[in-house]
Amino acid sequence: MKYNKIGIIVAMTKEYELVKSTLQNTTEDEVHKFKFSLGSLGEKQIILMKSGIGKVNAAVASIEMIELYSPDCIINTGVAGGIDRSLNVADIVIGEQTTYHDYYAGDVADHIKELGFPEIIAADSSMLNSLHTLAAKNNGIKFGLICTGDQFITNNVVLEQIKAKHPSGLAVDMESNSIAHVCFLRDVPFLSFRIISDTPWVDNHNEQYLNFWDSAPQKNFSLLSGLIKNI
């Protein structure tokens, strides 16, 4: 399946400006306090949106994106914290699946039937296939589970709690599964991938995050450009 109108949601201004710099023929818009750049990349029509940080911002932004622009698919990208010791700063985690790490509604027998959405949401298979092809040509790319919650993970105690709940989790962020949740409800193909900005188990965790912004994000947005051209 070909996706010609592609929605991209990022959380932060730095991410927004980096993606915007790769687009052509851009015009900007602001609707309900959300910032948009409309442009193109090759033959693809792009709707870029800055959601702001956190699950509620991400969910509301996703609804606005879908209702205003009806994209063929939505891609979420940006930074994430690593929660698996196989990861290093500037590695990229492609979310084959996403979930909430801070959501608990009791022990339910059927998550979809009782709560209305899956406990773990699978990414769009077409976009995943394209990224598997691109990943074969690049080092430091891993496929797996991204865990979403309204926390910036800064210490090992919280990290270990998340890993105990989701042992296969590779990365944590504050938006991916909220967007996946909305896309599941609205039947919009979705995929998230994130570049690792910090790993909480090291002593210089905060310095990792600050130094990361100097050059590493370019790797992430280079992969984004490759994905857009191939879907």
Q: What spatial order of strands do you see in the largest sheet?
A: 5-9-8-6-10
CATH-defined fold name: Rossmann fold
Q: Assign the CATH class.
A: Alpha Beta
CATH superfamily: Nucleoside phosphorylase domain
**Beta-strand percent range:** 25-35%
What is the averaged pLDDT score?
Answer: 89
CATH architecture: 3-Layer(aba) Sandwich
Please tally the helical runs, counting DSSP H or I stretches of 4 or more residues: 8
Largest sheet: 5 strands, mixed, barrel
Tally of strands: 10
**Termini gap:** 8 Å
Spans of at least 5 consecutive residues with low confidence:
none
As for the number of domains, it is: 1
Structural shape: globular
Defining traits:
231 residues, alpha/beta, Rossmann fold, five-stranded mixed beta barrel, 10 strands
What does this structure look like?
By secondary structure, the protein is α/β, with parallel strands linked by helices. The protein has one domain (5-106, 114-230): Nucleoside phosphorylase domain (Rossmann fold). The chain contains eight helices and ten strands. The chain has helices at residues 13-20, 55-69, 111-115, 125-135, 156-165, 176-186, 205-212, 217-230, and strands spanning 5-10, 24-31, 34-41, 44-50, 73-82, 92-100, 120-122, 141-148, 169-173, 190-198. A five-stranded mixed barrel has the order 5-9-8-6-10, surrounded by four helices. α5 (156-165) links the parallel β8 and β9 (169-173). α2 runs parallel beside α6 and α4 crosses α8. The longest helix has 15 residues, at 55-69. The mean pLDDT is 89.
